[in-house]
TrEMBL record, chains A, B, C:
Domain Aspartate/ornithine carbamoyltransferase carbamoyl-P binding: 9-167
Protein name as catalogued: N-succinylornithine carbamoyltransferase
InterPro entries in the record: ArgF'-like, Asp/Orn_carbamoyltranf_P-bd, Asp/Orn_carbamoylTrfase, Asp/Orn_carbamoylTrfase_sf, Asp_carbamoyltransf_Asp/Orn-bd
Summary of subunit composition and partner proteins: Homotrimer.
Protein purpose: Catalyzes the transfer of the carbamoyl group from carbamoyl phosphate to the delta-amino group of N(2)-succinyl-L-ornithine to produce N(2)-succinyl-L-citrulline. Is essential for arginine biosynthesis.
Family as reported in the entry's similarity comment: Belongs to the aspartate/ornithine carbamoyltransferase superfamily. SOTCase family.
Pfam families for the chain: OTCace, OTCace_N
SUPFAM superfamilies membership: Aspartate/ornithine carbamoyltransferase
Keyword S-adenosyl-L-methionine: no
Amino acid sequence: MANIIQPLKHFTKFESITQGQKLIEQALIYKENPNLDKAKGAGKRIGCIFLNPSLRTRVSTQLAALNLGMDPIVLNMDKEGWALEMRDGAVMNLGTVEHIKDAAAVLGSYFDILAIRAFPSLTNKEEDRSDFIFSQFVKYSGIPVVSLESATRHPLQSLADQITIQENWSGKSKPKVVLTWGPHIKAIPHAVANSFSEWTLGMDHDLTITHPAGYELDEEFTRGATIEYDQSKALEDADFVYVKNWSAFNEYGKILSTDSSWMLTESHFQKASTAKVMHCLPVRRNLELSDEILDGSRSLVQQQAKNRIFAAQAVISDLLEQL
Amino acid sequence: MANIIQPLKHFTKFESITQGQKLIEQALIYKENPNLDKAKGAGKRIGCIFLNPSLRTRVSTQLAALNLGMDPIVLNMDKEGWALEMRDGAVMNLGTVEHIKDAAAVLGSYFDILAIRAFPSLTNKEEDRSDFIFSQFVKYSGIPVVSLESATRHPLQSLADQITIQENWSGKSKPKVVLTWGPHIKAIPHAVANSFSEWTLGMDHDLTITHPAGYELDEEFTRGATIEYDQSKALEDADFVYVKNWSAFNEYGKILSTDSSWMLTESHFQKASTAKVMHCLPVRRNLELSDEILDGSRSLVQQQAKNRIFAAQAVISDLLEQL
Amino acid sequence: MANIIQPLKHFTKFESITQGQKLIEQALIYKENPNLDKAKGAGKRIGCIFLNPSLRTRVSTQLAALNLGMDPIVLNMDKEGWALEMRDGAVMNLGTVEHIKDAAAVLGSYFDILAIRAFPSLTNKEEDRSDFIFSQFVKYSGIPVVSLESATRHPLQSLADQITIQENWSGKSKPKVVLTWGPHIKAIPHAVANSFSEWTLGMDHDLTITHPAGYELDEEFTRGATIEYDQSKALEDADFVYVKNWSAFNEYGKILSTDSSWMLTESHFQKASTAKVMHCLPVRRNLELSDEILDGSRSLVQQQAKNRIFAAQAVISDLLEQL
């Protein structure tokens, strides 16, 4: 059935369970044999545009591109002082040096694929929700665009997470997946939590989301999940527990709680003895998640990080089909 | 006749009409077939040294080198905290960490070709005019040097501009080319304007330069052009209109005008209905140039940007001949 | 005999004279023929992690990796805002975003070899001496690690220095090597001086170290050298004079002298007429070392810099043996 799925035009979000399963399977094939399609991308270039810093995402995307024989070129626009104008019709007599529509069009004419990271402001809810920066790149570049985390989603992370769940689940029934809020000292975007929810539900797993009151996520991403405010109840019989901080969505970008009792330790797993723990990294140890969990046998965090390479490779490989 | 032109030693300025025509023709060949000379630069390395930030220039040079099979290595010396000492005989007991003569010699021993961006200070006219930093790299590196914009010239941009003019001109007589000053809020270098004038005159086109009084460019670059202070008169019957801001040259580095009537809109083209508009990018929209021009059919700016790749490829390919 | 030496597990310090000689010989082979082992590293990736800035080290390591057919990926973690937590058990509720043990493990799973630069604080002597940051990368990455300069050593520089000495010594007896302190205005790490002493003694050369009182280096590195506080006496009959500033080791990180009479000029060589002068670069001219020496025939500094490529290539080639 995989052969009748249309190749991706862009990779910005969850599309369908068949598409998701196809990407997971392709990623696992590449994990076994990273150089399988070394010739597929020869002579093709992917531009990796970072409006925000990155380590794992940047390196895993570069490696994925190299595995496919492509030339990856990284542009740290945040660090390289290239402030983009976002407003249509703006009179650019202040700090911005280039309009996103011009920059996107040039980059679109230089590369075969663009991969872009653009975090939310966390101050303008509607602009963030519209994924404005990201959609401008899609609109003006004219070439396939891969999200390296947008204002609202982090689909490559979520694909890597689903690969990891599949690798660690041999049960016949659906796994019980729990997404739990963890404490943090900074206002953190919703993208990882949104995307994890979207993909976990989309892949037809059973999802429970737990967080302090006020931390409800955008329902666009969580519809179909069980919301349970009592963390200990949510964790009962969990197979996979995904830990992530996010700032409030309703009181947009606010920090409402730093309650350390939400940080998982072994004692939280009394009714979920075999549960595995996931986190997208970077993790603030002993704030978001305890040393004992991260250094113990429940942790899948390194496996998730490794799978980022093959998630990106499967996605880029799929995008290459249309070129 | 092209086959008797000597290969370039360095690429820092306009050399001759035959050399210019040879590079344009080679660039157009590469535009048709970017991988034509994929083996030519195999195993060769180009070091791209940025003392000032860059997006288009950096990426287009990297792509040009990759098209020729070379390994490009980028050094953002401005961002990476490597302050170079420029003064001969200096006692280096202040902020500079390495003398340009040592750095240039090392880079010259590491690479096969160096490409360098070094903006002017706009405060020391004679030092800027002598292209001091640039000439030190030429002197001490001992290898071919490509200008990625020096204090006084931006020849790769100008080559891309001439390629674009050739692509858009099928007339039998010389095209009428107009270089018009446009407003800006910052003090901008003269390099693009100087080089455009030098190349346009060198390629034997008809050039009119128009700007507010006081914005006269260095005559070294403009000798042979018509200087016309009335912009509307200058634009009459224009075939190509190149828009660029620059700061004053006589009152060196000063901003003398931000008169917004100099910004081109459709109403400026009543007597030049078929004129094409050019700009090197990045452009500050609605300050230097209006949305209606940039988004309309007169605009060649994206074509110019794309041609940067093939301009660089033609130049690097020529420099490889001597290695 | 070379064929019975075990391949390196990591490259962080001097190991043995046979290992040293093997690396020198291999480097000289690569200098003659850089592309000899172009296929050896194909498909392998080296991650070059800079916690501190670098020019020569970064480029020479990239070139060495390219010569071996590897893909080098550079991460300027200092500039890219990725503050690592170093303390075990820390509650990460301040500025650090990722624990070194997590970052090192991820990088270890992404690359085949890691190369790391991590300077000392010069404020915490015991932590610096333990090469803490460096040892954490060795411990948690699980892959071969190359030092690009640690808190205490700079072994790739020292290997390049020994290659340079061998290239310039045809005498039958041991050369007399002098390591002389030179003035500087900043507090400089001990790594280059430590390593040069360690390697010069390890390669069984005759070593005299001269410096103002109070600048004694850590005896761990200098045991076996002659310490001579009178610079002119130390220089007598020298064959090679290595110039380097370092801050005090006993009064840790302090600047005790900036006495300019310690800066070498031609007049210092009256009793060492054929002596060659070495420096690792970057050098502050006319502060650490005079123009007349650097620009004269005694200077080997450019040769040392060039040999950095082949030192790195020999080391990485050796590390590839175990993969």
